[in-house]
Amino acid sequence: MDMRFDSDWYLQPIKGDTGKAYIGKKADDKVFIKRNTTPMLAALAKEGITPKLIWTKRTGNGDTLSAQEWLEGRILTSEEIGKRNDVIDVLYHLHHSKSLQEILAKVGGKTVTPQKLLTGYFTDLPTELGNNEFLMLVHQYMEKNLPTFKANEKTVVHGDVNYRNWLVCQNYLYLVDWDSIMFADAAYDIGTVLGHYLPVSSWSQWLMSYGVQPDVGMLEKTYWYALLSVLQEAKKQYRRGAIKEANEEILQLKRIYSG
């Protein structure tokens, strides 16, 4: 159902997980609007990582609406994401941008350690997942093998680089939906891509294309974050009642888990 934002704009809700996204319409103009998203959008757009920010407005109830240019394009498929070099290019740019690090620090960006991420996974974990014997084995492995985290090596990460958040427009690739942006290890984003979309046998080649040496330490860290990402997605799907999708994530976990 459309809602009037002011005398000019109508907001049409977009179906999604958060209920915070809208199509904004005014006469012949159309924009993508997100409610109470990160103040980093302007900086990310300036870097060419996400579509251009058009305006930001405060509503009467205190919400902030951010409008980005509406681009006709398509979402990457899950089969594409592990094969495209521009996915690597976008992630490398994001993780190595000093200006984005400075701006995220200024707006109070949170720093998330492996321990915090694992604790967050266990918070409100459905009983059925907590009691699953296979998942318990994975939990035990992850608790015993927390990767080291050096604060001086933290970087800006997207935090949810699943295929649904990659938009191709006229052969240009954008990363969208920045509600989870934070400071963390770059392996958090990398592990999501590798854990969901590439066989373990291809991880070393992908890492070399990204620009890091796939030594034992890097592979172990990437493996830990990959397990975490699949666990998080299984929990997310289960909590929203998508049992089939949750089971598919558990099957993916079985493909990559080696104990």
Automatic annotation (TrEMBL):
Transmembrane intervals: none
The keyword Repeat is annotated on this UniProt entry: no
Entries under Gene3D superfamilies matching the protein: 3.90.1200.10
Signal sequence, start to end: none
Keyword set, alphabetical order: Transferase
Annotated ranges, domain Aminoglycoside phosphotransferase: 40-210
Single annotated GO MF: transferase activity
InterPro entries: Aminoglycoside_PTrfase, CcrZ_PhaseVar_Mediator, Kinase-like_dom_sf
Alphabetized SUPFAM superfamilies for the sequence: Protein kinase-like (PK-like)
Matching Pfam families: APH
Record's keyword annotation contains Transferase: yes
Protein name as annotated: Phosphotransferase enzyme family
Species of the source: Enterococcus italicus (strain DSM 15952 / CCUG 50447 / LMG 22039 / TP 1.5)
